[in-house]
């Protein structure tokens, strides 16, 4: 299975990079996981609704340019469907069973994802009703993907 995590913005915090590298290393026996970091759109602090949409569209264009037509896309969005770790594991297992070997998880910038990206997504996933920094979300997502593989193989880790 090839998994891409496509995310807007750079990770600057060393502790987040270390955590992500640890889970990427743990995931290596199970799947090929790539992280694709795309630059966020520079914008002033206060934006009109229209300016916010323009920023999301520009970031969305960058995201869509990294997604091939045969990729199954899971957008991370607060309004998405919430799943337990077991349900995520089951979903990934079903995708693999039905020949969906290319999966992209998409994490938007601070304003979220454009409607164009949401329309391209095969499903949207929410980790919580709470808002998380998109940099931290990458680490949480990697941990949950790792947990899903461990659950699916009946290996110890999941509690």
UniProtKB/TrEMBL annotation:
- GO BP terms, alphabetized: methylation
Q: What is its main location?
A: cytoplasm
Which InterPro entries does this UniProt record tie to the protein? Answer: Alpha/beta_knot_MTases (IPR029028), RlmH-like (IPR003742), tRNA_m1G_MTases_N (IPR029026)
Keywords tagged on the record: Cytoplasm, Methyltransferase, rRNA processing, S-adenosyl-L-methionine, Transferase
Query: Can you state which reaction this protein catalyses?
Result: pseudouridine(1915) in 23S rRNA + S-adenosyl-L-methionine = N(3)-methylpseudouridine(1915) in 23S rRNA + S-adenosyl-L-homocysteine + H(+)
Give me the residues that bind S-adenosyl-L-methionine, please: 76, 108, 127-132
Give the domain of life.
Answer: Bacteria
Q: Which GO terms describe its molecular function?
A: methyltransferase activity
Tell me the compartments it is located in: Cytoplasm
Q: What is its EC number?
A: 2.1.1.177
Q: Which family does it belong to?
A: Belongs to the RNA methyltransferase RlmH family.
Q: Write down the NCBIfam families for this protein, in alphabetical order.
A: PRK00103.1-3, tRNA_RlmH_YbeA
Subunit-structure text:
Homodimer.
Q: What does this protein do?
A: Specifically methylates the pseudouridine at position 1915 (m3Psi1915) in 23S rRNA.
Q: What is this protein called?
A: Ribosomal RNA large subunit methyltransferase H
Write down the species.
Answer: Aeribacillus alveayuensis
**Gene assigned in the entry:** rlmH
């Amino acid at each position: 299975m090839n998994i891409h995590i496509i995310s807007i913005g750079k990770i600057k915090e060393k502790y987040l990079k270390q955590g992500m590298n640890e889970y990427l290393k743990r995931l290596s026996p199970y799947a090929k996981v790539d992280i694709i970091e795309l630059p966020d759109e520079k914008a002033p602090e206060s934006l009109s609704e229209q300016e916010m949409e323009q920023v999301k569209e520009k970031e969305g264009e960058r995201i869509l340019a990294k997604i091939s037509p045969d990729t199954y896309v899971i957008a991370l969005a607060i309004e998405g469907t919430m799943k337990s770790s077991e349900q995520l594991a089951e979903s990934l297992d079903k995708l693999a069973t039905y020949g969906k070997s290319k999966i992209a998880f998409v994490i938007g910038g601070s304003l979220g994802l454009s409607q164009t990206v949401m329309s391209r997504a095969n499903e949207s996933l929410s980790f919580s009703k709470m808002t998380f920094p998109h940099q931290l979300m990458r680490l949480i997502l990697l941990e949950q993907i790792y947990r899903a593989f461990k659950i699916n193989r009946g290996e110890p880790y999941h509690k």
